[in-house]
From TrEMBL:
It comes from Cellulomonas biazotea. Keywords: Acyltransferase, Transferase. InterPro entries: DRTGG (IPR010766), P-loop_NTPase (IPR027417), P_AcTrfase_dom1 (IPR042113), Phos_Acetyltrans/Butyryltrans (IPR050500), PTA_PTB (IPR002505), Ser_kin/Pase_Hpr-like_N_sf (IPR028979). Coiled coil: none annotated. Residues 508-553, 571-658 are annotated as: Disordered. The keyword tRNA processing does not apply. It holds the Pfam family DRTGG. This is Phosphate acetyltransferase. Residues 589-598, 641-658 have a biased composition (Basic residues). Residues 526-553, 571-584, 599-640 have a biased composition (Low complexity). NCBIfam families: PRK05632.1.
Length: 658
């Protein structure tokens, strides 16, 4: 039977979605299958963003329709019938999961006391312990304590059991006081989360929908950026530039080309804040000349046009409240970081009586690695700072406090792009590989490492600015604990760069092929690019040809293939020269030959070999039989030879990168 947790609150806008996301994330580390359930959906016209947020988590594998009980209309029409349907649909989800997070109603339709009591009835009928979520914004610790006492009593009247309290949106300075007051007064495990303005900030897309606008120019991907301020740009440009801030959206008439161009230039200039977007109101569009100038600037800043006037546009934008959704990775990272920092996960699981199974899922293993990394932070260098995926991953790791990061690349470009994407890389170090001081030190070290290859400092100055060489040298010199690469470069390149900057014992790559005469292998390492082809058998002969290969064709039997062997000089299976001999009694005279005849892996039965049979008596006797077997090159080249040619080509490719 699945364990369930019921989240409820006595009012709206309490931040249940933050706690619900944190619980789903916590349970994903503990059990194999986590489910979510919404007994009463917010609306039948639009999807429930809270449910979509939870379903987007990697630990949940359910469909949207499976996780919805009833609607507000069904509750108002027949509460008892709606309750029966909720219980039935919940058990359908519970049978497939080990733990289920049930998120109560949002107080969007029914009166407060009635809805709180109905949440208590649902929790009692589902047999789920209740975790209470209280809004602490603008309340003293004593006032919050009173609210908790009232709600706990109301839950008891409906036979629901409250096992924990989470006070959300507290003032940062009052977190400890609130936790101590509520926990001491109620005796329940209590957790307090500080308020984060980012979690309630709307996105540019939400503002665009609020004013009924359309995207006129810019990158559509940047519509998911959070808006931290809204300004009306009705003043002159010089006064407006003093008031803009990072993450601000400026609303200005569409015919104010001076304001529009001034904002675009300030957004791209160093030393000025990075805007989240521009809204052009009044239904005016820039003139064709100004539009051509905007296109020439190549700006990615979203520019939205709307038919509303200045007052209506500003009112709609100011009244838009953001929420935690799956579209904003920055909000998700912030919410999880707050939950991990202020909620004692093991204590909460003990209160919910959730046992840990013996089986470890990939997601549980991933979170264990993150916990271990967080406990012992390492310094990791990311050489591919120009990739948006790397910037997003770096923002997530920094928010979760997993590691110390250094990103390689141009500092202005990386931080500017991160700001455009709405990412916070304040805690990350950004190093330019072309910094003269660091470059000279790294070039000297690289020339020292590769001195046996003839590397000079001048040549090293050209190689070291490559971000992967630079990052590898940071690890080599102890400036970082590790490097993560591979988003924009292949694995072969990353390995080659690492090998080129390493002074440790050389790793060995082996390509083995089975043959009647033994096993051929090619071994090499980063400090020595010389190839050594050899053939090893149980034969004690030390004078054996080191490049001798079996002469086989597809048409011969296994017995004949096992008896066939090649002379190391004339490379024919019919030559009478013993394998242990160091020289053929009748060596072939040097003649012009085709490329196939010069290959060490070519079979003896080739046309060029047949033309040279007069130089060896043994080959003359068998020339007729050999020539009859040479219809095409493919029919006389053994599978072993082809594999060895591929291995040699692969090694040459690795040698070039090294």
């Amino acid at each position: 039977m699945a364990r369930s947790i019921y989240l409820t609150s006595p009012e709206g806008d309490s931040g249940k979605s933050v706690v619900a996301l944190g619980l789903v994330d916590l349970l994903s580390r503990t059990v194999q299958r986590v489910g979510v359930f919404r007994p009463v959906a917010r609306s039948t016209k639009t999807p429930d963003y809270v449910l979509e947020l939870l379903l987007a988590h990697d630990g949940v594998d359910l469909m949207y329709d499976e996780c919805v009980g009833v609607t507000y209309e069904e509750v108002l029409a027949d509460p008892e019938q709606a309750l029966a349907k909720i219980v039935q649909r919940y058990h359908e989800v519970a049978r497939r999961c080990d733990a289920v997070v049930v998120v109560g109603t949002d107080y969007t339709d029914v009166a407060g006391p009635t809805e709180l009591a109905y949440n208590g009835r649902i929790a009692a009928n589902l047999g789920a312990p209740v975790v209470l979520v209280v809004n602490g914004s603008g309340r003293t610790p004593g006032a919050i304590h009173q609210v908790v006492d009232i709600v706990v009593a109301a839950m008891g009247d409906e036979h629901a059991q409250v096992v924990g309290v989470t006070v959300n949106r507290c003032g940062p300075a009052a977190v400890d006081a609130v936790k101590a007051e509520v926990e001491q007064g109620t005796g329940l495990p209590t957790f307090a989360l500080p308020e984060s303005p980012l979690l309630t900030a709307p996105t540019v897309r939400q503002l665009m929908e609020a004013v009924g606008g359309e995207l006129m120019a810019g990158d559509e991907e940047l519509l998911s950026r959070e808006v931290l301020d809204v300004l009306v740009g009705a003043m002159s440009v010089e006064h407006l530039l003093d008031r803009i801030a990072d993450g601000a959206v400026v609303i200005t008439p569409g015919d104010r080309s001076d304001v529009l161009l001034g904002l675009l230039i300030a957004h791209q200039a160093d030393g000025f804040p990075s805007l989240a977007g521009i809204i052009l109101n009044g239904g005016f569009e820039p003139s064709p000349v100004v539009q051509r100038l905007i296109d020439g600037l190549g700006t990615k800043l979203p520019i939205i046009e709307t038919a509303l006037g200045s007052f209506r546009s500003a009112s709609a934008a100011a009244s838009t409240r953001g929420h935690l959704s799956a579209d904003s990775q920055l909000k998700v990272d912030t919410a999880l970081a707050l939950f991990e920092a202020h909620v004692d996960g093991p204590a909460l699981l003990r209160a919910l009586d959730v046992a840990r199974p013996e089986v470890v899922t990939p997601l549980m293993f991933e979170y264990e690695l993150l916990d271990r990394a967080r406990a012992d932070k390492k310094h990791i260098v990311l050489p591919e700072g120009s990739d948006d995926r790397i910037l997003r991953a770096a923002s997530t790791l920094l928010r979760r406090g997993v590691a110390h990061l250094t990103i390689l690349g141009d500092q202005a470009q990386i931080r500017g792009r991160a700001t455009e994407l709405g990412l916070d890389l304040t805690d990350a170090d950004v190093i330019d590989p072309h910094d003269p001081e660091i470059l000279e030190r790294f070039a000297t070290e690289y020339a020292k490492i590769r001195a046996h290859k003839g590397m000079t400092v001048e040549r090293a100055r050209e190689i070291v600015p490559s971000v992967s060489y630079f990052g590898t040298l940071m690890v080599h010199l102890g400036l970082a604990d590790g490097m993560v690469s591979g988003a924009a470069h292949t694995t072969a390149r990353a390995c080659a760069w690492s090998s080129a900057c390493s002074t440790r014992s050389a790793p060995t790559w082996r390509a083995r092929t089975s043959s009647p005469s033994g096993t051929a292998s090619c071994t090499a390492g980063p400090t020595s690019t010389a190839r050594r082809w050899s053939t090893t058998t149980s034969s004690p002969a030390s004078t054996r040809c080191r490049r001798s290969l079996p002469c086989t064709t597809r048409r011969t039997s296994r017995a004949s293939r096992s008896r066939a062997s090649c002379c190391r000089t004339c490379r024919t299976s019919s030559c009478s020269t013993p394998r242990s001999s160091t020289r053929c009694p009748t060596p072939p005279r040097r003649t012009r030959s085709t490329r196939a005849s010069r290959r060490p892996t070519a079979c003896a039965a080739t046309a060029s070999t047949a033309r040279r049979t007069s130089t060896c008596p043994a080959r003359s006797r068998a020339s007729s039989g050999v020539a009859s077997r040479t219809s095409t090159r493919s029919s006389c080249t053994s599978a072993t030879a082809r594999r060895r040619r591929r291995s040699a080509a692969a090694w040459r490719s690795r040698r070039r990168w090294a």
